[in-house]
Amino acid sequence: xxxxxxWAEGAVVIIDQTALPREFRLLRLETVDELIxxxxxxxxxxxxxxxxxxxLGVALSALRHKGKTGNVxxxxxxxxxxxxxxxxLSWGVRRALAKLPEGPEGVLAEAKAMLDExxxxxxxxxxxxxxxxLERCERRPLRLLTHCNAGRLATxxxxxxxxxxxxxxxxxxxxxxFADETRPLLQGARLTAWxxxxxxxxYRVLPDSAxxxxxxRGLVDCVVVGADRIAANGDVANKVGTYGLAxxxxxxxxxxxxxxxxxxxxxxxxxxxxxxxxxxxxxxxTTVAGTRIAPEGAPAFNPAFDVTPADLxxxxxTENGVFP
Length: 324
Prior knowledge:
Blueprint: E1 5-8, E2 11-15, E3 26-29, H1 32-40, H2 47-64, H3 69-80, H4 87-97, H5 104-136, E4 142-146, H6 161-170, E5 174-180, H7 187-199, E6 203-206, H8 211-216, E7 222-225, E8 229-231, E9 236-239, H9 242-251, E10 256-259, E11 265-266, H10 283-286, E12 287-288, E13 291-292, E14 305-308, E15 315-318, E16 321-323
Parallel strand pairs: 4-5, 4-7, 5-6, 7-10, 8-11, 10-15
Antiparallel strand pairs: 1-2, 2-3, 8-9, 9-14, 12-13, 15-16
């Protein structure tokens, strides 16, 4: 299976997520500038995939600027701040930079090792979460609800929240998955639905505004999502709309489970209030596929993420364990 992000013949190769589901297209990125552009326009996205992108970007720079440490450090700084909310991006950059004394090949070797590691730890984390959900939810088969995209497209090649679905589906424990459309860029309708269809998992896309109603009507046994940053106290930043789902789940006694690699945990951040929330362009809200749907000049409030307080979360699950 094609990895979401990989290294091939001196370049970073990604699945262009802006083209899905209409077209499956690979992009070959040969410069740090091209990679930063791909990150900022969401051609590659998802916290674990961004960690890999950060490391591979440092490798690109190290190979291009052999012996010029200052140039590599400057590129690394730009990469680390290409998107501010997901901690994995800067984590990947720092980890690759630590190998700079070993030369460009040392940096590249570390970045490649991180690709394999990402798949392994996400399988471990999602496997733990699947076991937890089976212990907590008596009904079989399960009806799950997820938000945004936390499948293989958000990682190197497996997934976090959707990784749970793959485990449960393989064991015959999934009745269906509700995939929130995830306004305004529709990562759920475009990407999660595409992954579920490809895997043969029964699913339905629903408007974000219908999710709380589905929970209230007893149509959901568990909500499972990924994360872009987890504070030391367990507060979780994820795609905007996650907080509302957590409120609905808490109100109706439905477990709300967060699945992420340990690299998404920011131990230096005491609580979610300190997470920088990326705000994106107005036209992501006021247009759809290039067609204007709001009056010309209409301003928009377009945060890419929100923060869910720890007391609304049943458990955070990483490859290292289950944290209630």
